UniProtKB/TrEMBL annotation:
InterPro entries: Aldolase_TIM, HMGL, PYR_CT. NCBIfam families: PRK05692.1. GO terms for molecular function: lyase activity. This is Hydroxymethylglutaryl-CoA lyase.
Length: 303
């Protein structure tokens, strides 16, 4: 059953910017502040990872320090290990996230270990977060396809998602990392996952490589999933998946939700302007079709 309200998890400042050219610290701070002003209540603000591997996230501590925090907004951080978690706590992140993958090939290629070993690495993070009263969100990458092994079995997605849930993650975000999902493959994956995880603890995270992200989100909505990850202006991609385009654009998701009569609390015009500004900083066009349409209309009325 379609939900009456959806929580949008804005991943642009982290998952988006980490796969774009570097922008200034001030641009990152402005982006987070503008997203909060546009009505986003959950913003993935940064990542505490090795600057050697993800230099775009090297200033995450400074971003957390300089943003104008608003009551009722969750400012979250990605933390792959205990060192990253400790840095996130110093920066006063409200929540943290860990990330696994449903593909053995993807896991081996990217972090040189098995899925089981990768999950073991997260256990200390979750244990410490529990002790500190900090909520942990879990990501599962490659839930439909993998750039190295091809199709991913829905049973594997369910197994990894359940392992993260059992470990202590309050919510599991299912990520189509290379954007190959279709309505049928997503439904098959959700059949397996929803058999072992309650609907209210699931989120979806689609990339739009083949233009199917909104269709796949619609599929998830019709199955009762009420949390959607997206990135303003369609920022990002996957550095490990050649040709994978950005996350589904938050503007496009908001327009879809508006059309379905689903509440979300986001000001579409303010959001679109935020997308225009960060793309100007990046020197790239807006990837959001809704953002582009609103920009064209704005230029028409304000030549």
């Amino acid at each position: 059953m379609q939900p009456k309200q959806v929580r949008i998890v804005e991943v642009g400042p982290r998952d988006g910017l980490q796969n774009e050219v570097a922008v200034s610290l001030q641009a990152k701070v402005n982006l987070v502040d503008q997203l909060s002003q546009a009505g986003l209540h959950y913003i993935e603000t940064g990542a505490f990872v090795s600057p050697k591997w993800v230099p775009q996230m090297a200033e995450s501590a400074a971003v957390f320090d300089q943003i104008k925090r608003s009551t009722g907004i969750t400012y979250a951080a990605l933390t792959p290990n205990l060192k990253g978690y400790e840095a996130a706590m110093v920066a006063k992140a409200d929540e943290v996230a860990i990330f696994g993958a449903a593909s053995e090939a993807f896991t081996q290629k990217n972090i040189n270990c098995s899925i089981a070993e990768s999950l073991e690495r997260f256990a200390p993070v979750v244990q410490q977060a529990k002790a500190d009263g900090i909520r942990v969100r879990g990501y599962v990458s490659c839930v439909v396809g993998c750039p190295y092994q091809g199709d991913v079995a829905p049973s594997e997605v369910a197994r990894v998602a359940k392992a993260l849930l059992d470990m202590g993650c309050y919510e599991i975000s299912l990520g189509d990392t290379i954007g190959v999902g279709t309505a049928n493959s997503v439904n098959a994956m959700l059949d397996a996952v929803m058999a072992v995880i309650p609907t209210e603890q699931l989120a979806v995270h689609f990339h739009d490589t083949y233009g199917q992200a909104l269709t796949n989100i619609y599929v998830a909505l019709q199955r009762g999933i009420a949390v959607v990850d997206s990135a303003v202006a369609g920022l990002g991609g996957c550095p490990y998946a050649a040709g994978a385009s950005g996350n589904v654009a938050t503007e496009d998701v908001v327009y879809l939700l508006n059309g379905l009569g689903i509440q979300h609390g986001v000001d579409l015009n303010a959001l679109a302007k935020t997308g225009w500004q960060i793309c100007a900083e990046l020197g790239k066009p807006v990837s959001s079709k809704v953002g582009l349409a609103l920009q064209a209309n704005c230029l028409k009325t304000n030549p």
